Structure formats: structure tokens, C-alpha cells
């Protein structure tokens, strides 16, 4: 396997793990001080940005500068937008019901239990999912058609995620919509435009690492894991289970695609 700097990449993996852990440790300290662990959701996007910046610094002189800049900028923009949105959405709120339910099962200290099951797990996932970001920094080939395609896919994902979040916020901010189901805009084409956007973002970032086949093989696990999390893990499956009993939700499910955007079926509102 020539052409890929494996030794330098191995060091990068360790540094990236340290960056992800540092973000989680700092977030845990804030959470304990505030008495709520929902702040860890903000750390998800920040963790990816930290890993991207650490990898960019470590990879100087090893990979193509254009590709390094592309993947780092894309990851930081995505991560900080997501962190900012989650932080703004959760301002002034108490504990997230998901974490409250989980921590009620704590055999001892709630904080120690949260650190093991939430912070360390999310830190590990940040490290794993960010493999394309790290690997792309060490690809020596200049940006080509596949990397450009990856940038286009990433941009499409950011559009779905950001616009979907904005549309949902505007809808739920109107008191007249209280207790109703958001079924407008992108939400009439897919029940999860934000999750679909994440899906595109990480497959796009994976494509940026495909300038070297060794890197592509190593980091294929990343978009596969993210796809599983979004569709079968903590994303779509849990949210739909939470929404299932709401009035009008069954009808919304019947006329709206579950994940991949498709034209709404007959009877859709807007």
C-alpha cells in the first residue's frame, strides 16, 4: 500500500481521539455545573470541528492542500452550524427527556453514569465517523472529479439540514400550529429532511477521501455507521416512536416518504 502516509495517519488518529475527548471532557464539566446533560448534543458538532482542525494541522506537508482545506472547511461549517442550532434551540430548557429517562436507571452517580454512557460513547463516535475527514487530509492526489462530486453532495446535505431546521423552527414558533404536525416545505417530501441532510453530508465527505483507494477502504465505515445511526439508531426510529401517538401523525406518515425525499402522495397538505 504505497502512496499513503500510514505512519503519519496513525499519529493523526491518536491526536484526533484526544481532540474529541477534550471536547467531551470540557462539555461534561459544563453539564455538571449546569445540572443538565443536554449540552452534550452541542458537543457533537463541536467535536467534529475540533477533529477537523486538529487533522488539518497535523497533516501539513502530507496531503494535497486544496483537499485538506476543502474537507476541513466543510466539516467545520457543518459542525458549528449544527452546534449553534442545537444550542439556540435548547436555550433555557431543562434536561432532555431522553437523557432523563436514561439517567433514572443509573446504579450510582448519575454524572458518572452519564459520562460513561453518553460522553465517552459520543466521543468515540465522533472519532469513528470523522475518519473520512482525517483520511482526506493525507491523500496526496489533487482534487479531482470524485472530490468535487463529494463537495456537491455535501452542499446538498447542508441545504436539506439547514433549510429543514429553519422551516421547522418557523412552523413551531407560530402558536397557531401548536399540537399540529409540520408537513410543509421539505417536510412534505421527507419526514426527516435534517437527517437526510446529515446522510448526504457524510457520504459527501467520504467521497472527498476517495483520491486514494487505501483511504476510501479505511473510512467506508464512517458513512455506513452514520446511515445506521440516522435511520435505525438514535435518529429516525426513536423520533418516530416518540411522535407516533400525536394526532395526525399516522396520516402524515401515510403520505410522506420516510427518508429519501419523494413527491408527497395524494392528500398531502402543501
From TrEMBL:
It holds the Pfam family DUF1295. Keywords: Membrane, Transmembrane, Transmembrane helix. Coiled coil: none annotated. PROSITE patterns: S5A_REDUCTASE. InterPro entries: UstE-like. GO terms for cellular component: membrane. The chain crosses the membrane at residues 6-32, 39-57, 111-130, 200-230. It comes from the Bacteria. This is DUF1295 domain-containing protein. It comes from Streptantibioticus silvisoli.
Amino acid at each position: 500500500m504505497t502512496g499513503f502516509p500510514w505512519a503519519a495517519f496513525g499519529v493523526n488518529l491518536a491526536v484526533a481521539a484526544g481532540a474529541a475527548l477534550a471536547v467531551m471532557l470540557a462539555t461534561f464539566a459544563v453539564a455538571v455545573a449546569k445540572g443538565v446533560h443536554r449540552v452534550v448534543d452541542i458537543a457533537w458538532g463541536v467535536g467534529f470541528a475540533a477533529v477537523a482542525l486538529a487533522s488539518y494541522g497535523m497533516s501539513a506537508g502530507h496531503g494535497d492542500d486544496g483537499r485538506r482545506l476543502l474537507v476541513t472547511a466543510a466539516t467545520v461549517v457543518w459542525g458549528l452550524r449544527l452546534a449553534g442550532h442545537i444550542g439556540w434551540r435548547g436555550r433555557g430548557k431543562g434536561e432532555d427527556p431522553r437523557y432523563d429517562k436514561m439517567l433514572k436507571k443509573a446504579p450510582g452517580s448519575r454524572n458518572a453514569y452519564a459520562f460513561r454512557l453518553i460522553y465517552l460513547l459520543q466521543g468515540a463516535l465522533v472519532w469513528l465517523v470523522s475518519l473520512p475527514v482525517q483520511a482526506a487530509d493525507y491523500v496526496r492526489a489533487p482534487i479531482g472529479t470524485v472530490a468535487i462530486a463529494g463537495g456537491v453532495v455535501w452542499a446538498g446535505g447542508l441545504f436539506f439540514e439547514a433549510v429543514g431546521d429553519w422551516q421547522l423552527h418557523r412552523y413551531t414558533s407560530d402558536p397557531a400550529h401548536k399540537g399540529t404536525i409540520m408537513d410543509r416545505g421539505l417536510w412534505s417530501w421527507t419526514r426527516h429532511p435534517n437527517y437526510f441532510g446529515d446522510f448526504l453530508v457524510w457520504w459527501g465527505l467520504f467521497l472527498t477521501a476517495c483520491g486514494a483507494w487505501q483511504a476510501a477502504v479505511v473510512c467506508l465505515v464512517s458513512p455506513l455507521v452514520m446511515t445506521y445511526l440516522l435511520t435505525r439508531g438514535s435518529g429516525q426510529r426513536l423520533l418516530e416512536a416518540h411522535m407516533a401517538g400525536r394526532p395526525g401523525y399516522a396520516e402524515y406518515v401515510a403520505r410522506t416518504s420516510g427518508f429519501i425525499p419523494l413527491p408527497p402522495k395524494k392528500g398531502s397538505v402543501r
